[in-house]
Amino acid sequence: MERVIIHQPSRPAGLSPVVGCAAALVWFAILSVAPDPRPLGAPDVAVNAVSKITSLADASARAATALLLRACGLGLLGFLVAMGCSRLPRWQSIIVTFVGAPILAIAAMWANYGYFPISLQIQFAIAFTIIGAATELALRANRTAKLMLVLGLAGFFMWAIPRGVSTDLERSARIAGVQLLSNAEDIPAGDPGFAECVAIAFQFAEENSPAADPVHTNQAAILALGVILGDEYVATLARSAFDGSHHKAIGRLRRKVKLHGRGDLPRHYWVSAALSVLSDGNRSTAVGAIKELMDSNPGGSGFSFADLTADRAGVLLAQRATQNAASALAFQAEVRDGLKAGDYCPPVAGLPEGISREQFQSVYGGLGGERTNQILDEIKQRLQQCRALGGHSEELIEVQPL
Hints:
This protein has about 400 residues and is an all-alpha fold. The protein contains 18 helices and no strands.
C-alpha cells in the first residue's frame, strides 16, 4: 500500500503570537503609566557611556541618553506588536504592525503625559516603533535572538525609570508641606510672601534638626516648597503621590506669592531647587537651560534669561542648604535672622526674555555665544550679591548647544 505524505506549510519559528500580543499589551500599559526616562534621571553609567562614545558634554549626553532609552521603549512596543502578528501573511503583518504599533505608541504617550503628543513626539514614536517592528520581521525565524532582544530592551528601559526619594524624606516633605499650608492664610502677598514661605519651611526644618540630620530636614523643606510654590510634577519626579486635597490651598498661595513682583519666578526657583535635591546642581541647571531652549521653539514662551536666573538661584540655594550638616545649620540660622526675597534671588530687570530660537542663534550666538556669555557673566555677578546664596561663583551653565 502506497504511503501518502502530506506536506503542510511551515510556520515561522519564533515565540507564540499569543505571547507576543499579551506582551505588547503589558508593555503598552507600562509605557502608559511609567515615567518617561528624562535627562535628569538618566543613569550615570549610561550617560558616561554615551559621553565617551559621542564626546558630548554632560547635559547633551544626558539628553541623548534619555532619547535612547525612550527609543528602546517605543522600539520594543513595535517589536512585540510584530510578534503578535507573526501568523498573518507577511504583507498583512507588515500593514497591521506598521499602522497599529505607532497608534498604540501615541496612545500610550497621550495617557502618560496627560496631553496629546506634539508633532516631534509623534514623529519620534512612529520612527522607532517601525524600526522595532522591522527588526522583529528580520529576526522572525530566530527565537533565541528575539528573546534576548526583548529581555535586553525591557531591562534597559525599566532600569532607567526614576525610583524616587526615600520613604523618610517623602514623609518629612509631606509634614513640612502641611506645616506651610497651615499658615497659608497669614502669609502676605507679593515678595514678602516669598520670604515668609521660606522662613516657615526652614523654621520647621530647624526645629526638627536636633532629632534628625539637618541636611535631611532642609531637603524636605525644599521639596515641600518645590511642590507647593513650584509644580506638582516635582512629586511625580520623586515618585510620590500628590495629595489633591490641598490643590485649592496651593493654588491660592501660588497666586499670592511673587518674586520681584512676578508670579512665574517662584515656580522656576523652587522647581529648580527641588530638582537639585532630587539629583545634583549641575543636572538641574542643565535641565533649566534645556527647558528655556524648548520654550524658544515656535509655540513656546521664548528663551528667558530672567527665568534662567531664577533657575540658577534655586539651585545655588539648594546646594548651600544641603551641602553638609554645618552648611545646613548655618543656612537655617541665616533664615531665622531674617532674609528678604531679594536675598534669595537677584533682580531680573533688563535681562532679555521672549527670545525665539532663531533670534537666540543669530543675535546671541546660542549657548556658548559671545553675547550669551556676556549676559551669563552679568547674571553671575548679580547672583553673587544675594546673601542667601553665600556669594557662590560657580559656573552658571555647563550646557553645550543641542
